[in-house]
Write a structure and sequence with these properties.
Layout: H1 28-41, E1 45-50, H2 56-66, E2 71-76, H3 83-93, H4 104-120, E3 124-129, H5 137-146, E4 157-163, H6 166-171, H7 177-182, E5 183-189, H8 194-207, H9 218-228, H10 232-248, H11 256-264, H12 267-301, H13 304-325, H14 349-363, E6 369-376, H15 379-390, E7 398-405, E8 408-418, H16 421-429, H17 433-436, E9 441-444, H18 445-451
Parallel strand pairs: 1-4, 1-5, 2-3, 3-4
Antiparallel strand pairs: 6-8, 6-9, 7-8
Helix pairs in contact: 1-2, 3-4, 3-5, 8-9, 9-10, 9-11, 10-11
């Protein structure tokens, strides 16, 4: 509904996990890299814990996408599977043909035979277990027994448990300590901080085709951050509703008023308001009780007035000093006239890269992955951008193609040719910091060709 209003090509805040727009901030990229390393080199069980809506499913999808081809993954999503059925469920995911009457021992033997065959073929098998906090402890113990399948040097099956914080509580129970001792790597998806949420919002907007200044004011980001509690799913829901509220007012920037409208329209916003009111009331009564005790104590000692003045005066001075020391946000700089500063000797840099890109697109497999760096609406602007980029990365690996956004001419800049998303993500993380501030994203040649039709 509001896409054309804000210059977007697609929904920016869908809650369905999309590996094309994985946000590496808020320790997500670091956890992904560490999990890939642990799966490739670890010998125990891996655990990933995060609150509801923190991005566990997205991380799981990214692992399946970015693991090398020699690693085969299976996905176990049903947390209520019974202990006697879990081995059959895993065998089914591995596409093993077993009679329904096969007992536990025969299923285990078939699993071991299959895994030995994959190991002999140079393959590694990993099982992702979602919602592990909801699994019966006996089922988790059955999965733990699979970690005993091994050769003289290697584990035949790698296990990754994804769960909510309740998973840690379950693993702390005495009767499951054998599983807890097998966990060699533990990762925690922490909530996003306010500044990270600001980066996340503009990252998703850029991925949806937006190239203007930030649509959310700093105050709106702070309000949204407080309401979402750093959880990605809540951020997506509130951001989407906030944009809709701004669109309804026919304005082009989201303010705290629009975020408040989104919060009021969200179930978790109502829950938070009730919880906050209850918490504030408790604090009020606790404060009054404490105040009464303090005043009574000082009264009994006979010098409460002087002590209260002495205790409060430094606090007031410190508060005044801290208020004066707070850094003031700089005002927005005036827009620069890029066309006036265009450099004549670089006038043909754009035509050279456009020509090189035409032959490059036709010579690459559709699955080739490239990194989208930035975009521009005018040739003069992009020539200046290309000049800057050429001083940071090799010009021969920079490609430019023309397309349209909202029926207006648009130029998109890509960097590099990579065989898979794993290699492309590694290259993206090595780009200069100034380039990474534009929140680059991964593109396939197939997607680019589709866009240029």
């Amino acid at each position: 509904m509001y896409y054309a209003h804000f210059g977007l090509k697609e929904p920016p805040f869908k809650i369905t996990p999309n590996t094309e727009i994985f946000f590496t901030g808020g320790n997500r990229g670091a956890v992904l890299d560490a999990a890939i390393y642990a799966i490739q080199n670890g010998e125990g069980i891996i655990k990933v814990v995060g609150e509801v809506g923190s991005g566990k499913t997205m991380l799981c999808r990214m692992l399946q996408t970015m693991l090398p081809e020699r690693i085969e993954s299976i996905y176990l999503a049903n947390p209520s599977v019974a202990p006697e059925d879990v081995l059959h469920a895993i065998a089914f995911e591995l596409q093993l043909k077993l009679p329904k009457s096969a007992d536990r021992l025969k299923v285990m033997q078939a699993l071991q035979k299959h895994l030995l065959g994959r190991h002999a073929a140079g393959k590694q098998v990993v099982i992702f277990v979602e919602e592990a906090q909801g699994m019966p402890l006996a089922t988790l113990e059955e999965i733990r027994l699979l970690s005993n399948l091994e050769t003289n040097h290697d584990k035949l099956l790698q296990i990754v448990l994804f769960g909510q914080p309740e998973l840690d509580e379950n693993l702390n129970q005495t009767n499951i300590r054998q599983l807890r001792e097998r966990i060699t790597h533990s990762f925690n998806l922490t909530p996003l901080h306010s500044n990270e949420i600001g980066e996340y919002l503009i990252f998703r907007l850029r991925a949806a085709g937006y190239f203007g200044p930030h649509l959310f004011t700093p105050a709106a980001i702070k309000k949204l951050s407080n309401a979402a509690r750093g959880l990605v799913r809540r951020v997506n829901i509130l951001a989407d509703k906030s944009l809709l509220a701004a669109f309804a007012e026919n304005v082009y920037q989201v303010t705290p008023k629009h975020v408040q409208a989104a919060i009021s329209d969200s179930e978790f916003g109502i829950e938070k308001s009730k919880a906050a009111a209850k918490h504030n009331k408790s604090l009020m009564w606790a404060g009054l009780l404490m105040l009464g005790l303090v005043l009574g104590y000082f009264a009994s000692m006979g010098y409460q007035k002087q002590r209260i003045v002495d205790a409060k005066q430094p606090s007031a001075e410190l508060k005044d000093r801290s208020d004066s020391d707070k850094p003031q946000l700089p005002s927005n700089p005036p827009p620069t006239n890029i066309e006036a500063t265009a450099i004549n000797p670089q006038e043909d840099i754009l035509s050279r890269r456009l020509s090189a890109t035409e032959s490059w697109l036709t010579s690459q497999p559709p699955t080739t992955v490239s990194i989208q760096l930035l975009g521009a609406t005018s040739d003069v602007q992009l020539k200046s951008d290309l000049e800057t980029l050429s001083q940071q990365i090799e010009l021969d690996n920079i490609y430019v193609f023309r397309t349209k956004v909202n029926d207006q001419p648009f130029l998109t800049v890509l960097y590099g040719s990579f065989a898979n998303r794993f290699d492309a993500m590694r290259a993206l993380q090595k780009l200069p910091v100034e380039i990474q501030k534009n929140h680059p994203q991964l593109r396939t040649i197939a997607g680019v060709l589709q866009e240029t039709k």
